[in-house]
Amino acid sequence: MKKYQMYIGAEWKDPSSGEYIDSLNPFTGQPWARIPRGTNEDATAAVNAAYAAYDRGAWADMTPSARGALLRKLGDLIARDAEHLADVEVTDNGKLKAEMLGQMRYMPEWYYYFGGLADKVEGSTIPSDKPGMFNFTQYEPLGVVTIITPWNSPLLLASWKIAPALAAGNTVVVKPSEYTSASMLEFAKLVEEAGFPKGVFNVVTGYGAEVGSALVEHPKVARVAFTGGEPGGIAVYQAAARGLKRVSLELGGKSPNIVFADADIDNAVKGAVSGIFAATGQTCMAGSRLLLQDSIHDEFVEKLVALAGTAQMGNPMDMSTQVGPVTTQPQYQKVLSYIDIAKQEGATCVLGGKPATRPECGDGWFVEPTIFTGVRNDMRIAQEEVFGPVLSIIRFKDEEEAIAIANDVLYGLAAGVWTSDIGRALKMTKRIRAGTVWVNAYRVVSYMSPFGGYKRSGIGRENGQEMIKEYLQVKSIWINTNKEIANPFVLG
Ligand code: NAD
Questions:
Q1: How many domains does one find in the chain?
Q2: Of residues 250, 385, 462, 470, which has the active-site annotation?
Q3: Is 447 part of a structural domain of the chain?
Q4: In the list 61, 109, 110, 141, which could disulfide-bond 170, CB 3.0-4.6 Å?
Q5: Residue 252 CA, closest ligand 1 atom number
Q6: CATH of the domain at 200
Q7: Residue 200 phi, psi (nearest 5)
Q8: pLDDT of residue 157
């Protein structure tokens, strides 16, 4: 079994606890790697290394252009090793090789884009209202950024934070999910190869409540960037508040995917499948509530069941597999428990609704693609995030009812609208309370476009040009060119 070390202050370290966590392969249910169980002591060492690198030395003195060049070099190394990184992620989280390879081949763009932005953040010269005073601003890094990520897209979601944080001149300590830490430790080898100065990039692994909270609480940490579930997000927010730290939270969702009768139905069926069965439904932006207009409901459900019912399940490493296992055993139990809840609530199961026991699923944690019709929006299956391949179908009669149902939920991460009427499309994009709305598409993201949640889906945004400012602070600098100081007893 592969045994990993943590990356702290440009050195490969065993955990001070001497303890390891087994990382399990979701397709086999068997351990395949051992991950260091980091401690408070390890977290402190990593933050101290990161703080020293931020405060003085090679990184602190590096020009933004040189920082950008280093990030672009890292992007090239990721592109070179995309297949290896994808294989590690698939082994660790069970998501499809087809999806993870696509993510790894796309991921260099974050390092090219934010690397390019590093030397384009400009302060301004303020037209002074005070004679003889020259006033200008400059943007400066915040300091040490703690980055905490979940298990579903470990490297991509971390890169949404690492690339802008480093481009802005901060230093980082990354704490990946205890279920899927291997790929971040492989990634650290590329950071080392790229030649980042000592302490700029650190990885500490282990449990959230142990080492994750230590990395949030440490007084030398200036900002926390978190993606994960609501309980962890709230705990991080509270701890960050105690330390008066900046924080961004990317949390869960219960996103509506809304199909009007005037939509291209075949495309919308594919959009519904991509919304909930891609990534086995383990995506924060899953279109887990499918809202169908009355007049197309039955035809749509028939086509959807036909397409989803033929999805090929099995080994996620096989490029032809379409639905892989659930990533963790607790998550597998949670998905099955929500299927029971939906049945008890009176929803009608028209597809799946049970563990997948097909021979090609082996001993993995597989759940059959599951579709419920007859769901009311006040049911738990319509309100709570399942994070698995379970779709709730809700009927609506007109635009107003669709909007009311779409917004009647605590979350607001994303939404899909399927229609051929541009006026309706624009009205829906305005009225839906979500951070991202796709029209005639679902599950599209880019390094160039802001992503994040309304309501309980999170705080702050990631990606896009403006985001680099989330990792910077502005300083106002005054230079007195007068020969004499005016009255020292009053405000200047
Ligand atoms: P999780 O909250 O259990 O864990 C996420 C990370 O937080 C892990 O690294 C964990 O160790 C750490 N953590 C947990 N408690 C902590 C604490 N008290 N202090 C510090 N760190 C702590 O989430 P998960 O189960 O790994 O991921 C699934 C969740 O993530 C879902 O709710 C999903 O919607 C959400 N998610 C959101 C997005 C998004 O961009 N909005 C993307 C992917 C996943």
A1: 2
A2: 250
A3: no
A4: 141
A5: 34
A6: 3.40.605.10
A7: -70, -40
A8: 98
